[in-house]
Design a protein that fits this description.
Elements lengths: L4 E5 L2 E6 L8 E4 L10 H10 L5 E4 L15 H14 L6 E5 L1 H12 L4 E5 L6 H14 L5 H9 L8 H8 L6 H7 L1 H5 L2 H14 L4 E5 L5 H10 L4 E4 L7 H4 L1 H9 L1
Parallel strand pairs: 3-4, 3-5, 5-6, 6-7, 7-8
Antiparallel strand pairs: 1-2, 2-4
Length: 259
């Protein structure tokens, strides 16, 4: 089994496992409101399948053991992440990002050398999410902001997961109002077409394989958009996992990465 160590690289806390070998290292990025511990089941699977592969699971800025940052715009977070990647000695890593971590991985790969991107259940077009967030914005900016997070959690299909995975999710510290407003600022304040253009530019700039892992077959218009902007993208559907394919199907995802 791999030995996992808590490390600090740059401004980010991380669990580090494996050793440097000839393959691109893996960088694991959790979703908003969660933390690096969500990757524990997959790290266990990788310890069996690919024990020597260097794998680092980061806490995003402001989460768990990583300190707050002045800005949580994803372009700025990508710069903080790059500082940590460089300090950790991770050359052209494969970025595996869940939820907002998938958007972060995409933005990072459009800016910095990357061996590949695995986006776990994060559509890159804001779509209806922006409309829902706009309706909830008054509550989000009030002392009752926690109700927004509770509503989001309720729609993530947590009940579909094994009990151990559910407990892992609920063990995460709920995000503060500062984090929710910070990480969602661009969605709240930017027109959908502006955000769409940015994600298209990111995809065009990525010179590496791109994989989209999701629980449900993507709607045809979104699949067409993704395939048009990232030719060669591979889409993998792992059903029955709600918003958490990496927890419901840790073994399958680990096999994908080991391959």
């Amino acid at each position: 089994m791999q030995t996992i160590h808590l490390r600090y690289y740059g401004d980010l806390a991380a669990d580090s496992a494996g050793t440097t070998d000839e393959r691109p290292p893996l960088v694991l990025l959790h979703g908003l409101g969660f933390d690096r511990h969500q990757w524990a089941p997959m790290l266990q699977e990788l310890a069996v399948l690919d024990p020597d592969r260097r794998t680092v699971a980061f806490d995003l800025p402001g989460h768990l053991d990583s300190p707050a940052q002045p800005s949580y715009d994803l372009g700025d977070v990508a710069d903080v992440l790059h500082g940590a990647v460089v300090e950790a000695g991770l050359h052209k890593p494969v970025l595996v990002g869940h939820s907002i971590g998938g958007a972060l991985a995409t933005i990072y790969a459009g800016k910095y050398p990357t061996g590949g991107v695995v986006n776990v259940d994060q559509p890159l077009l804001v779509g209806p999410f922006k409309d829902v967030l706009a309706q909830l914005e008054p509550t989000l900016r009030s002392p009752a902001y926690g109700e927004v997070w509770d509503r989001m959690l309720a729609g993530m299909g947590i009940e579909q997961l094994p009990q151990a995975a559910q407990e892992l999710i609920h063990a995460s510290t709920p995000p503060t109002q500062e984090l929710l407003l910070g990480y969602w600022r661009e969605v709240l304040e930017s027109p959908a077409e502006v955000l769409k253009a940015k994600r298209e530019a990111d995809l065009h700039a990525i010179d590496a394989p791109y994989e989209y892992v999701t629980a449900n077959e993507p709607p045809a218009p979104y699949r067409q958009w993704l395939e048009a902007n990232k030719p060669g993208v591979r889409i993998t559907v792992l059903p029955g996992s709600g918003h958490f394919p990496h927890l419901a199907h840790a073994g399958e995802l680990a096999k994908l990465l080991a391959g």
